[in-house]
Design a protein that fits this description.
By secondary structure, this protein is α+β, with helices and mostly antiparallel strands. The chain is about 30% helix and about 25% strand. β1 and β2 form a beta hairpin. The protein is globular.
């Protein structure tokens, strides 16, 4: 039968005792990590979220306590009292390895049945089992450290923004459905039959209205919801450090967020980063790295070789250039011995899988006077060497080349660049932040043969692009910006449109009718008719920032109770069927899938 903790009050955490507490009587509570019964001597490792400490039961221990210690198994919850003393055999692998507790009082508060897997920091247990028993998985130090890191980032965020005169304001969770790029999660109304609330994809409209209301600096750690396909850095529900400021332009916001990043890195990791952070325009990022969220920790930048090959006899190159495409390549330095023909064939299959028609290559081994390439019959020695010069390909290097429309060439080489960097192990352990600015306002949709907005409809165009808004959408760029860390987008933001006439003009450019504008955004447009200060902001992904700073591979590793790929929860078996009574109250009837 479980014992009570009455009369015992924890005085220390397991991982926080030190030599300064030697000879003191302390009281600890925690889980049993490991038991080692040596006959006349018992050692128990007691664990809480701060770490481990060794408990000792020996010939001086009261016999009843000693016998009770013999019954203890892994994951039992204990409360102990005893004197801290120096260990004879120091364990340098744990912070408390120089001390241990000679137990004088022991209570077993809760017993554990046999666990489905061991609680170990590094585990090979499959994800499905770990997620089914997530409450056990969360006992592992690695996950507890990750969640603590996330907590510390949130704490640092509040400290920083409070110190800079931001006001934390909560916005509604039940809102009107508005287009923001992903599907809404809908909540049926019991009172208003046939009508639905939406869960917010972000607090976008409300934080703009707060600027109209005169709250010139707003902050919120906001829960957001998006019904979209999951991936490693995407969960259906997430937390956004939501920021909005009045009387600002782009530079003011970027400077404020850089201060936040500098504070977090120093406060949470003890790392100093230099500010101002580097900036790349969207076009620069795409042309150099093939991504609007480039990882700049390593080189292998993209080189445009179109001018060098436009007059070649190789039709794969020349025909693409004639059709207004481009030929571009990347160089893997010193990789000719690793990137064999067999490996290049694998990379060719990879790029075909993401939209390229093929992959040309130049492989120049250390023992060859001339490079070998996949299109050698179309290039003489001089032309090939000139091409290598333009690419920057030298002995020992391998160049990989894609020819196609820019919308294919650039992202394919960007993805190939990332894959190769991991394969070659050339990514250093560093934190490379940068801003990507001046985003295109529209992108061409070949299926509908029309331009689609790349941002929410409240984004301000750049001043020198206004004249093209109605006549040449492809020339319109936005006062929008993304913060990127090591190839992960951490936040997006923009300066907002505050002039109601310009806002209506923007809606028309997006193809919205007056009826659609009124139905979806009427209250915001009306608000701007009563005057608004210029404003803008960002939404910083707290989860993604924690993921990168923890070195985690997935948001699952920094989310307490995550969803799997199909947006379900293995632990609670959610989503689940509800009874007919609830559906009737909500005026909903389900239709069985065929």
């Amino acid at each position: 039968m479980a014992e009570s903790m009455a009369g015992m009050k924890r005085t220390h955490y397991c991982g926080e005792v030190s030599v300064n507490d030697i000879d003191c009587e302390i009281t600890l509570g925690g889980f049993t990590q490991r038991v080692r019964d040596k006959g006349s001597l018992i050692f128990i490792d007691l664990r809480d979220r701060t770490g481990l400490i060794q408990l000792v039961f020996d010939e001086t221990t009261e016999r009843g306590i000693f016998e009770k210690a013999k019954t203890i198994k892994s994951e039992y919850v204990l409360m102990v009292r005893g004197v801290l003393w120096k260990r004879e055999n120091i364990n340098k692998d744990i912070a408390t390895g120089s001390v241990e507790v000679l137990v004088s009082e022991l209570r077993i508060l809760s017993k554990a049945q046999t666990l489905p897997f061991e609680i170990q920091n590094e585990t090979k247990v499959n994800d499905e089992l770990r997620l089914k028993y997530r409450y056990l998985d969360l006992r592992r130090k690695k996950l507890q450290d990750n969640l603590t890191m996330r907590h510390n980032i949130a704490k640092a965020a509040r400290e920083y923004f409070y110190a800079n005169k931001f006001i934390e304001i909560e916005t509604p969770m039940f809102i009107k459905s508005t287009p923001e790029g992903a599907r809404d999660y809908l909540v049926p109304s019991r009172i208003h039959a046939g009508k639905f609330y939406a869960l917010p994809q972000s607090p976008q409209i409300y934080k703009q209205l707060l600027m109209v209301s005169g709250f010139d600096r707003y902050i919120q750690l906001a829960r957001c919801f998006r019904d979209e396909d999951l991936r490693a850095d995407r969960q259906p529900e997430f937390t956004q450090i939501d920021v909005e400021m009045s009387f600002v332009d782009v530079d003011d916001i970027l400077e404020m967020i850089e201060g936040f990043v500098k504070h977090v890195m120093s406060d949470v990791l003890g790392v100093n980063i230099e500010t101002p952070l580097p900036r790349l325009t969207y076009n620069e990022a795409m042309s150099r790295f093939g991504s609007d969220k480039p990882d700049t920790r390593y080189g292998m930048e993209i080189t445009d070789i179109s001018d060098c090959v436009k007059n070649s006899d190789f039709p794969v190159f020349s025909d693409v250039i004639k059709n207004k495409g481009s030929v571009r390549g990347i160089v893997a330095s010193g990789a000719s011995s690793i990137l064999t023909r067999k490996e290049i064939d694998k990379l060719t299959e990879f790029v075909r899988g993401i939209g390229a028609k093929g992959l040309a290559y130049i492989r120049w081994t250390e023992d060859s006077e001339l490079p070998n390439c996949s299109f050698s019959k179309f290039f003489d020695e001089n032309n090939l060497l000139e091409l290598c010069r333009v690419l920057g390909c030298k002995k020992g290097d391998t160049a990989l080349i894609v020819a196609d429309k820019n919308k294919v060439t650039l992202p394919v080489l960007g993805a190939l660049r990332g894959k190769l960097a991991k394969q070659l192990g050339i990514i250093p352990d560093s934190y490379n932040y940068l801003w990507v600015t001046e985003m295109p306002f529209f992108e061409w949709n070949e299926e509908t043969e029309s331009f689609d907005a790349m941002h929410h409809p409240f984004t301000m165009p750049m001043d020198d692009c206004m004249e093209f808004l109605d006549t040449a959408p492809e020339k319109v760029y936005a006062k929008a910006y993304d913060l990127v860390l090591n190839g992960t987008e951490l936040c997006s933001g923009s300066i907002r449109i505050t002039d109601h006439e310009l806002q209506e003009r923007m809606f028309r450019a997006l193809g919205l009718t007056k009826e659609e504008i009124e139905a979806k955004f009427g209250f915001l447009v009306d608000a701007y008719k009563y005057a608004s200060p210029p404003h803008g902001g960002v939404g910083i992904g707290l989860d993604r920032l924690a993921m990168v700073l923890c070195g985690a591979e997935s948001l699952r590793d920094i989310t307490a109770f995550p969803k799997i790929k199909d947006a379900s929860d293995l632990m609670s078996d959610c989503p689940a069927v509800v009874d007919e009574k609830q559906l009737n109250e909500l005026h909903i009837k389900t239709i069985p899938l065929k």
